[in-house]
Structures are given as structure tokens and as C-alpha cells.
Amino acid sequence: MEALREELDGHIGAVASRLGASSRMLAESWFARHALLGPSSTNQDTHDLPFQRWYRFKEAFAPRAVVEAFSKLNCVPATCIDPFGGSGTTALTGQFLGVRPTTIEVNPFLADLIEAKLASYEPDELISSYRAVVDAAAARQVDMAQAMAEAPPTFIEPGVNGRWIFSAAVAERILAHRMAIDDLADTKHARMLRVLLGSTLITLSNVVISGKGRRYRRGWERRTVTPATVARLFEIAFLNAIEDVVRFGRRSCTDYTLLRGDARTALAEVEGADFSLFSPPYPNSFDYTDIYNVELWMLGYLRNSAENRTLRQSTLRSHVQIKRSYDATIRSPLLDDTLERLNAHRAELWDRDIPDMVCAYFEDLNAILAELQRIITPGGSVMMVVGDSRYAGVSIDVGAITVEIAAKLGFDLKELSQMRSMRSSAQQGGGYDLGETLVHLIRS
User: Which of 85, 146, 290, 390 has minimal Cβ neighbours within 10 Å of its Cβ?
Assistant: First the structure.
């Protein structure tokens, strides 16, 4: 542990050495709160880190992964792009270290979370907006039938078959706060407060997020959450956020670009960058939007099933949870061999579209890398963390296939290194035998 701390401090010192004294001290102070509990490719050691505590992720970069990436470069980049923004860690860490970030996120809740972290605020004005929301919410009466008319019926009591995510009384208070936030004139303040309200939702609900989705809490029927808990948890979230803004708001770089939408098309709006660091969804047949369904519906990002489907179709083709086109023409020697073996086992697969999905996944990665080949300066680096999968005993070596695809686009391989081992599904043995790999490419 001590060696990891010394290594991190050394990387921070080297990367931040070009900053002014106050900016360097601010970055060092922020990183000093960074625990060292697990691999840098997971977020388990940053749950209490300022800004990161606004909404807790499990599967996300830790900020030290960004510092480690910067330290591998010949010089610290002036600009960095992350096509899969997620929790915003690459962009936020870049700001602390004086690197101007561009990031893309398709999930509107996560896009708001990222922008809430990256934006600058006047604390007194933010406090005034919070007080206005609390007062307005307390006086508001909500027409529940109208507010959640097209939401899934399981969300609000009485639910379906005796199960529901929120009691009617708690849901009414959540929606009162949401509507008060929506009425704010200051969109930047509304964005942050909406995110903070979102951070309370799972605690207020009858469900937990675990594994690959949502499940009901054990004994949820006997669990009591009072309507007053909504305002109390919202207050706690706000007090944490305002503390972070006051202490760490004046970062070395306060500028940023956030593009909202599908990375496969949004990258066309980016003109150039020195460096790219990202982790795309893994081809593990998991629709990542499922994790955030509670926030998306309760906060008003989704209003009907058509919007839900549109969002899911805008994600990388890494899963088979929705029916869509898996047309793809991408080829590489290892991919062809993998697809041949998958097709030979198609009858054993739990979904016959899996071979086509795997091919489409690499077609989408190819589209991302083709845009990065245009965007990144010659000699610049692209670092991506990818995860393997396995279906019917056939392993998908995502790192090696990505290297073959990237070579055709004009990238040279600098490094291919395993970061950790991930657990496979129970159907595939349940052991820690799936690789998570850092692919470091150089734009020729």
C-alpha cells in the first residue's frame, strides 16, 4: 500500500510539475484523498473522493489510472479526448492536471453528471438555488398519474404483482423535488441539483444495483422509507457537493467540451486532440443503460418507451438485449477465427444473435478508432482499456482483435498489458479468468 502511494505521488509530481504552485497543491490535495484499495481500472477506491462521491460507480476508471496514463507519455498533453465519458474521471482528472478535456456521453443522466463535475460555480448562488428548490418542493403537490404516465408500472406503488421500486409517498416527494429543479432558471445549477437528487434514488428505493442489473432488496417489504428522507438525503448530497466546489473548484483548467450523443457519430464534431484515454463498453451482452433506468425515468430523462428504445439503440453494439441490426463487414484474422468458432456453437448460445453482435461490436470499435486516427496528432497516443468475454466456451480476445483492427487504420502498437482478471458468468465457469487489457496505440 505504501509503495502504491509513493508511486502515485511520484506520478502526480511529474505530471503536475509544469503547473503553478497553487494548481499543483490543489491537485496534490485532491489526490491525497484517493484510497488505494483495488485495481486502477475500477472505481472502488474513490467512493469518498471529492466530486466522485456525487454518484457512486463501481466499474469506472480511478483517477490514478489517468495519472498513470499521462506519466507513460513523452510529455503531458495539452488536450485529451474520452469518447465514452461514463463517470467523467478522465475529463475531471485532466482539469486538475491542466489538460483540457473533450468527452462524449450517450446516457443523458451520465452526461449531466460529467458536466456537473466539470463546470465552475459561484457557491453563494448555488446555495440560493438549492434553497429555492427545497422551498418549492415542500409546497408542491404532484399529480403522480400524469408525471409517470408512461413509465414502467413497476416503478411506483402498487407496482406489478405486489412489487414496486418506490412507495407512492416517497415517489411523490422525489417528483416534487425534480419539478422544483426543472423550474430553476439557471440550467447549470439545475443540472447539478438533478444529479444530486439522482444520487439518492437507489437508497430511497426497494432495489439495489448488483452484478449485471437491478434486484429487490432482501426483506424490502418490511423496509420503511419515510417521505421526509428524500429531503434529508438531498441535503446531505448537496452539502458534500458544495464542500467540493468550495475546496476544489479552482482547478488548473476550467474549460471543457462535452458532446452528448452516440460516440460513433459525435466524434465527427471533434477537430483535434493530443491524446485519447477511454474504456468502451465490453462485449458482455449487458445493456449498460439498465443500470441507470431508475435515474433516467425518475428524473425525467426518459418519458416513454420510444425514448427508452432510442437511447438503447444509440449505444455501442455490445449486447443483444434489444433487437437491432448487427450488419458488419469488419474483418481480421483473429476475429474471423473467433466468429467461425462462435458460429460452430451457435446452437448452444443463449441468444443466436451473439456471433453477429460480436462482429458488430468490433465494427463499432473500428468506427471509433478511424475517427481517432483523424483526430489525434501524429505521434500521439490512444490508450483504451478493453475487457474480454466468453460465450459457449469461446473466448473473445478483445485486446488482440483490437490491435489487428487498429493496425489496418494506421496505428502502431506500443503496449498490450493486462490490468486485472474479471469474473466470468456462472455459465462460463464463474472464475476470474477474463482479461481486462490496456491497449496503447501510437497514431502514425
Answer: 146
Distance from the Cα of residue 155 to its chain's centroid: 23
**Minimum mean pLDDT range among 14-28, 110-124, 129-143, 251-265:** 14-28
Element (H, E) at 268: none
Confirm if 362 and 330 have CB atoms less than 8 A apart: yes
DSSP string for 49-85: STTGGGS--SSS--HHHHHHHHHTSSS--SEEEESS-
Segment 39-65, tens digit of pLDDT: 665 545 567 899 999 998 866 778 989
pLDDT over 70 for what percent of the chain?
93
Q: Is 219 left (phi over 0), alpha (psi -120 to 50) or beta?
A: left
Going from the N-terminus, what domains does the chain have, and what CATH number goes with each? 2-106+253-289+303-443 (3.40.50.150), 123-248 (no CATH)
β-pairing, 394-396 vs 79-82, is unpaired
CB atoms within 10 A of CB 244: 18
* CB-CB contact of 284 with 319 (8 Å): yes
Cα(173)–Cα(134) distance, integer angstroms: 11
**Residues 193-202 as b or e (16 or more Cβ within 10 Å = b):** bbbbbbbbbb
pTM, 2 dp = 0.94
For 178, residues 6+ apart whose C-beta sits below 8 A from its C-beta are 194, 197, 298, 299, 300
pLDDT, position 424: 47
Residue owning grid cell 423496509: 223
pLDDT over threshold 80, residue 287: yes
* Average pLDDT of the residues of the chain: 92
CB 354 within 8 A of CB 253: no
Q: Which residues on neighbouring strands pair with residue 441, listed in sequence order?
A: 382, 413
Residue 173 confidence (pLDDT): 99
Beta bridge partners of 216: 207
CA 426 to chain centre: 25
